[in-house]
Amino acid sequence: MQVTDLKNPALRTWIQEWAELCTPDHVVICDGSKQEYDHCCNLLVKAGTFIKLDAPANSYHCRSDLSDVARVEDRTFICSTRKEDAGPSNHWHDPADMRQVLKGLFKGCMKGRTMFVIPFSMGPVESPIAKFGMEITDSPYVVVNMHIMTRVCSKVTAKVEAGAEFVRCVHSVGAPLAETQADVPWPCAPIEKKYITHFPETREIISFGSGYGGNALLGKKCFALRIASVQARDEGWLAEHMLILKLTSPAGVVKYVAAAFPSACGKTNLAMMEPTLAGWKVETIGDDIAWMKLGADGRLYAINPEAGFFGVAPGTSMKSNPNAMRTLDQGNAVFTNTGITMDGGVWWEDHDAAPAPMVDWQRRPWSPGCGRKAAHPNARFTVPAAQCPVIASEWEDPAGVPIDAILFGGRRASVVPLANEALSWEHGVFLGATMASEMTAAAIGGAGQLRFDPFAMVPFCGYHMGDYFAHWLKLGAQAPDRSRLPRIFYVNWFRKSPAGKWLWPGFGENSRVLKWIFDRCNGQGKAVSTAIGNLPSADALDLTGLRMTDEDTQALLAVDRAGWLEVLPQIEAHFARFGNRLPEALAKQLADLKARLEA
User: Fold this and answer.
1) Tens-place pLDDT, residues 40-57
2) Sign (positive/negative) of CA torsion 219, 221, 225, 231?
3) pLDDT band of 445, cuts 50, 70, 90
4) Where residue 444 falls among pLDDT bands split at 50, 70, 90?
5) Are 503 and 496 spatial neighbours (Cβ–Cβ below 8 Å)?
6) From the candidates 265, 388, 461, 521, which is the catalytic residue?
């Protein structure tokens, strides 16, 4: 299809205006076909960007530029009309000024390149929870990865042609080519010219200068969280940085769980867990993002808006996440900034295979003991979710799945118990709003200081987080039957003894906590009412075979009143950041917690 064939004048004009500004050599409207995917992969192989791997099948290895290896938080902007609407957790820029900056950067930026127009759906195309996007890009690497991570297809083009709303996404690597200039394997712009910008009022994303991950795959964090969170606020639903799992008991009863964790807290591992409890089964709906809307029956229904997994490779192994490894073993993956072995495979730190001489992510010879990492710490894999051996059969159900429980958590060596059930929806929002991980002694502030990451959304909320808290409270208040809302829990897999020993084994053993949560949602499960919430009683968790001492179990399930009282001033300082936009209900929850602890 050519641009001139488009019948929707708004869509046609939008593409033509960007083409006139960027001056690409060609414009291609993508159709999501396998032929298109293979063609772009072949282009990338010829350019030296991709190396075709011998294993896994139909997979590629890619190395980025050394300056382009991760999301660039300090170059990511929310361009809301009013600065105060961006809130303290975002970098703000005046939208009119930013458009002028971007206009200058994008002028002629695609010379010598092809402009691809990618029609994509976040969520199953026919789902009432799904949203559509169009991404303009000059990167075939983006086309390939968007094929994996979203639903790229002509059906989306047809729906937009018929008048469906879509989020406008524009991306360029920012590296035009002169007529005789040779390209480089990973084109990008210098850091000072990188901009990842969001215009929440007009539902636009414009990204310049980076070709990596969420900076370039605009359906990922940019759309699915930053812009979608604004859409969710305006339309009365939730766009969350949450996994979704299906939990089935030995009796065949099913519960669906959504969970938000900051980075390095085992989110993907939980989504694909292999339970150690006999007869229990965990299946994956999604590993990173959940969009949730209230259904006609008053329950909260969720979809995974993504179609693939964009995972961090280092640390992924048969021990930590066997189902992720099995997903990758099926092939059709893109590996970025891992090591590459001499026999045409990939390797990263903590991989199950023994390290051998290879080439590291910076194209240098590497061997064990050389003093360098083979893979970049943020090395990634992109792989279709449908290949996951524990993907739930209903993971693409357009109606979504009904959420029974929402989990929050952080990396806390002290104070926070293994599991805690919220006393109410408002108390649950308080737990989400105070999600935090403890800094190490090497971090600024020292050991014991908390790094707050409310709802695991600090880098991803597209508006003022105080208003975001209010939106969660409002959704609960307006639910037609509050008893049908999900129960909310806070979990902590990372509690340590005073001597620094892990008190909980984690990984598949977390199924023991999920069983208690399942029972609580089923009107069963023993709990003790405490100052901080409802905790499992000493005999509520199935600890068979764990060889845990009574002392360790007691420490995992105890309420450390003194520790909580010491933490309260940090929570107060955290809430103070949101000024008069902090909902009064959360201030009351904090006051009530203090009163209960001091009683």
Assistant:
1) 999 999 999 999 999 999
2) negative
3) very low
4) very low
5) yes
6) 265
CB 238 within 8 A of CB 291: yes
User: Are the beta carbons of 466 and 577 closer than 8 angstroms?
Assistant: no
Residues 297-315: tens digit of each pLDDT: 999 999 999 999 999 999 9
Give 225-289 as a 3 state SS string.
Answer: HHHHHHHHHHHCCEEECCEEEEEECCCCCEEEEEEECCCCCCHHHHHCCCCCCCCCEEEEEECCC
The CATH fold of domain 240-307+396-598: Phosphoenolpyruvate Carboxykinase; domain 3 (3.90.228)
Residue 448 pLDDT level (bands cut at 50, 70, 90): low
User: Sheet harboring 339-341: ordered strands across?
Assistant: 346-347, 339-341, 358-359, 365-366
The reply to whether CATH 2.170.8.10 applies to domain 308-387 is yes
> Smallest Cα–Cα separation from 283: which of 397, 382, 381?
397
Q: At the fourth CATH level, which superfamily is domain 3-49+70-235?
A: Phosphoenolpyruvate Carboxykinase, domain 1 (3.40.449.10)
- Predicted model pTM: 0.96
Q: What is the pLDDT of residue 364?
A: 96
Is 265 noted as a catalytic residue in this protein? yes
Question: In which residue ranges of the chain is CATH 2.170.8.10 found?
Answer: 308-387
